[in-house]
Amino acid sequence: MKASETVNLTVNADPTEVRVPVGTTLAELLRDSLGLRRTKVACWEGVCGACTVLMDGAPAASCSVLAHDAHEREILTAEATDPIVTAVSRAFEEVRAYQCGFCTAGFIMAIAGALRDGRTSEAEVLGTLDANYCRCGTYPRIKQAVALAVARVARSAEGGESP
Amino acid sequence: MTVAMGLADYEFLDDLVFPEMLFSRLVTSQRASGGVVSLSDTDCRGRDGYVGVVTAEDVASSALLGSIVYDRPILAGRDLRYVGEPIAVVVARTALGADLAAGRLTVTYGEPTQPSVTVHAADAPYVVAEDWSRLDPSWAEDICHRTRLRRADTASAFARAHLVLEGTYDSDPLAQLSVEPHGAIAQWRGGELRIWSTCQHPFAVRQELSRVFRLPLSKVRISVPRIGGGFGGKSWTRAEPYAVAAAMKFGQTVKLMLRSGDSALITRRHPGSVFLRTGFAENGEIIAREARIELDTGAYADSGPRVLEVATAAAVVPYRVPAYDVEGILRFSRSVPSGAMRAIGSPQVQWAVEMQMNEAASRLGVDPWQLRRTNLAGPGEVMVDGRRTADPVTPEIIAAIDEVWRQTSDRPTGATTDNVGVGIGLAMTAGGASPASTAVLKLAGDESVAVLAGSSDMGQGSHRTIAQIVAGELAVDLEGVVVRPADTAYTPFDYSTGASRSTMFMGAAVREACHDLIEQARTLCARMVGVAREDVEWQNGLLRVAGQSFGLGQVVIAAFGPGGELIGRGWSSRFGTNREAGVPTSPVFWELSAAVAVVETTDLVGEPRLVRLSVVGAPGRVINRLDGVGGQEEGGAIMGLGAALFESMRDPWEGPPGSYSIRPLRVPLMRDVPPLATHTVEDGSGPGQAGERGIGECSVVASMAAVLGACADAFGAPITRAPVGFFRDQPIGDEESK
Q1: Do the chains contact at B661 and A47, CB–CB below 8 Å?
Q2: B605 and chain A: CB distance < 8 Å anywhere?
Q3: 3-class secondary structure for chain A?
Q4: Cross-chain Cβ contact B662/A47 below 8 Å
Q5: In whole angstroms, how large is the CA radius of gyration of chain A?
Q6: Yes or no, beta carbons of B7 and A138 under 8 Å apart
Q7: How far apart are CA B433 and CA B449, in angstroms?
Q8: Do B676 and A140 touch (CB under 8 A)?
Q9: Three-state DSSP class for B5?
Q10: C-alpha to C-alpha distance for A11 and A34, rounded to whole angstroms
Q11: Which value does ipTM take for this structure?
Q12: Parallel, antiparallel, or unpaired for β B589-600 and B420-431?
């Protein structure tokens, strides 16, 4: 078995080449090799959603994706300057949609994924959040943040501006 | 951290990186008895950066862990007590290497003992913490602690009762399951232990590690970064001893970050069984109660005795019960040790009390809220002999509950069917723990303030609360107040961050430190101007003397130079604060909450759907509106609805270590949260210096009781088990581990 492998991937719009031990997860690649530590890891079984990133636009539990399988994929994390990710992050800050803050990056990415995927109503976006735990129970304020982000994305789609 | 800090700046334990750091994994037992016969790392050696393994033999010279009973070895060896018990720590140069090594360790177990054999050896010489001389165990019968609260003659009172209700009400175990699991990083250098940890109570952990590893307190240093949720699960010592044992063995910095599934095997919430018998007079007044509360503390005592004592009193409050006899029994079992979880001891008990209130209202033909109102103890009334009176029960809170009840029960809107149930839950929980907190303030010449306070911020907003108190007392800009995270080397002593105590006790210590600073500034100002100290007055944020006024910063610069600082100290203790003597009554405050829930069902066996939930909370005074009260009340209510409807922690099965899944725990998700309204009553009725009291725990209990009450109303039958369980459809065993 090879001890390490090279993974070529695009992270937050930057083409990147990383050499990692075989068996490294995408979460470890992002956090440890690239220093993108806003992605958090907790359950290591793809259940809690803290580690959610977008892989080719779709939400993925980065704790349960091998770096190997992210080869030649496009990854977006909470550090991305993507306009929708930024709009969702800003909405979370504005309505203070977090308490401990550990699950937040995962929620932001799951919501951004739904919005980028063309889900335009609040209910549609909320319906995609079955794989994200917030044990502090900040759900009512996350709903507010979703409403704010949905409205801004809709306005920008009409006006052609950044959300 | 600064108060204006945003999300992107939070640094959690797992984000800390040290040069030459080793990584570790906990290996847990697949058997609940029989012991580990041998443990071989032959397959690990020479591969994937493997460093070594720590086993029971390595820690044999350490004392036993425990905050009440010293009964838990760091790593189990010949005496195994539960599936999931830590038996080894594997260490490697990378996290991946540690994972691989954990899977390659070969463990041989001995013959399992008969289930009839007790968990604790009857002749075991268990040492009990100094302040727990009241512990009443019977090791031979697997009883860890017994309590009893009695008032008047219940037998004669029951004989007079018009209506007697009795039932047994069971609550499943739960996992605290903060999204950030437990973790610790340990260094052992020059005879000193340095630890970074996710713990809620750094000073308590320092004390325990000092005892267990036989080191002076001054040589154990604990730093706490931002914590990703606690809920009681990070109370006392958790991941630290494993990282310390590995750091001591290998002489290098060792990190142990547990996975959520491993964390659930370290501590859980007690499952409970409550037998309750209540006698009512014809007018609906409660005249007698008997209760027998049995809690399962798992394989080790953990916080069990403390939880049991709270649970026993929870069977009496918040009502007026003229005659009661409540017995509490804490048993050991071969399962995960049970510890503190939000509103310790109350959730298992008070929904049972509320279920009987519902049944009594129905039998007596009265409104469920009116029945409660009739029985609710009033301010100044003693509910449990020798304990604090019912000070949160004010006319303001009663009016608020009345309003929410009328609005919700008159028009249960939002339902899509006719099978609607409405429930109300009242709860009262004991808060405050020990009133021992100290604080140091460093006031700089630019009037910015560094606050050294041992409170851990885990999302409850305590750092901002503390900063607001300082900014208000010293009349300085909030943006310039920085609350430093706990580091036992520099931050002064604080008993704990638990029992909702920080606002009141750290708040009091910080107020005292502000006063101390102002008094010192008066002295300096007097010398600067050349007058007597008494001639300097503190008014509207300025020191005024002889027609002149000076800011605090001016005085600091004049006395110490432009970069100088003035230090203020404050404390709240068991004998009062710096300025005021006084012994707080137990509990140091009662928290009161009420909730009203509406559920609907499609048919009698159908899944209940929560339509609405309203919560009334009584903080007395709100200090932190931004990220304190609202989130705490909502979060508690959501935790309560999960415990009522679907959340439950199954026992670990004998699968491979690391395979315990959190998926079937079924914690509340976005889709489970109905329209939720919170009402906060500010009537200044709290015992704090500004009329405040702690909050954030009681809403769990009220919400759970209200949701179960609404289900019972919809089904037309009392509920005797929580959760009601319609969601427990997850398979258990091999299938889900894949």
Answers
A1: yes
A2: no
A3: CCCEEEEEEEECCEEEEEEEECCCEHHHHHHHHCCCCCCCCCCCCCCCCCCEEEECCEEEEHHHCEHHHHCCCEEECCCCCCHHHHHHHHHHHHCCCCCCCCCHHHHHHHHHHHHHCCCCCHHHHHCCCCCCCCCCCCHHHHHHHHHHHHHHHHHHHHHCCCC
A4: yes
A5: 16
A6: no
A7: 28
A8: yes
A9: coil
A10: 9
A11: 0.97
A12: antiparallel
- Strand ranges inside B86-244, DSSP E: 86-92, 106-109, 127-128, 143-151, 163-171, 183-189, 192-197, 220-223
Contact A137 B638 (CB under 8 A): yes
Mean pLDDT in residue range B80-96: 96
The Cα of A21 is separated from the nearest Cα of chain B by a number of Å equal to 8
Inter-chain CB proximity A135 and B6 less than 8 Å: no
Report the residue from A93, A130, A139 with minimal CB separation from B6: A93
CA distances from B276 to B316, B343, B387, B547 (A): 11, 20, 22, 70
Cα A22 from chain centroid? 24
Task: Inform me whether the C-beta atom of residue B663 falls under 8 Å from chain A C-beta atoms.
Answer: yes
Q: How confident is the model at residue B369 (pLDDT cuts 50, 70, 90)?
A: very high
Mapped onto helix, strand or coil, the DSSP state of residue B108 is strand
Dihedral (C-alpha) B531, B537, B543, B548: value to the nearest 10 degrees? -60
Confidence class of residue B178 from pLDDT cuts 50, 70 and 90?
A: very high
Contact B94, B77 (CB under 8 A): no
Beta strands in B13-158 (DSSP E): 22-28, 36-40, 50-55, 69-70, 86-92, 106-109, 127-128, 143-151
Span B300-309, pLDDT tens digits: 999 999 999 9
Q: Do A48 and B460 touch (CB under 8 A)?
A: no
Nearest 5°: phi and psi at B620?
80, -65
- Any A CB within 8 A of B636 CB: yes
The confidence band for B695, taking pLDDT boundaries of 50, 70 and 90, is confident
Residues of B within 8 A of A36 (CB-CB) are none
Q: Which residues of A touch B (CB under 8 A)?
A: 21, 23-24, 28, 32, 37-38, 40-45, 47-48, 50, 78, 89, 92-93, 96, 98-105, 126-127, 129-130, 132-143
CB-CB under 8 Å, B670 with A132:
yes
Nearest CA in chain B to A126: B670
Is B671 part of the contact surface with chain A (CB cutoff 8 Å)? yes
Point out the least confidently predicted range of B14-23, B114-123, B476-485. Answer: B114-123
* Interval B488-543: pLDDT, tens: 999 999 988 887 888 888 999 999 999 999 999 999 999 999 999 999 999 999 99
Give the tens place of pLDDT for each residue, B592-644: 999 999 999 876 566 788 999 999 998 988 888 876 678 889 999 999 999 99
In this structure, the dihedral spanned by the alpha carbons of residues B355, B639, B615 and B603, taken in order and rounded to 10 degrees, is -50
Over 50: is that where the pLDDT of B570 sits? yes
Place of tokens 């079937």: B664
Q: How far is A63 from chain B (nearest CA, A)?
A: 11
**Å from A128 to nearest chain B CA?**
9
Q: Does B673 touch chain A (CB under 8 A)?
A: yes
C-alpha dihedral over A18, A24, A26, A30, to 10 degrees? Answer: -50
B628: contact with A, CB 8 A cutoff? no
B509: its two tokens = 């210590």
pLDDT at B61: 96
pLDDT value at residue B604: 56
Select from A45, A47, A126 the Cβ nearest to the Cβ of B670: A126
Which whole number is the average pLDDT over B51-67? 97
Counting Cβ atoms within 10 Å, is residue B606 exposed (0-12), middle (13-18) or buried (19+)?
middle
What's the number of CA atoms in the CB half-sphere (13 Å) around residue B489?
A: 11
Instruction: Tell me whether B10 touches chain A (CB under 8 Å).
Output: yes
Question: What's residue A3's pLDDT?
Answer: 87
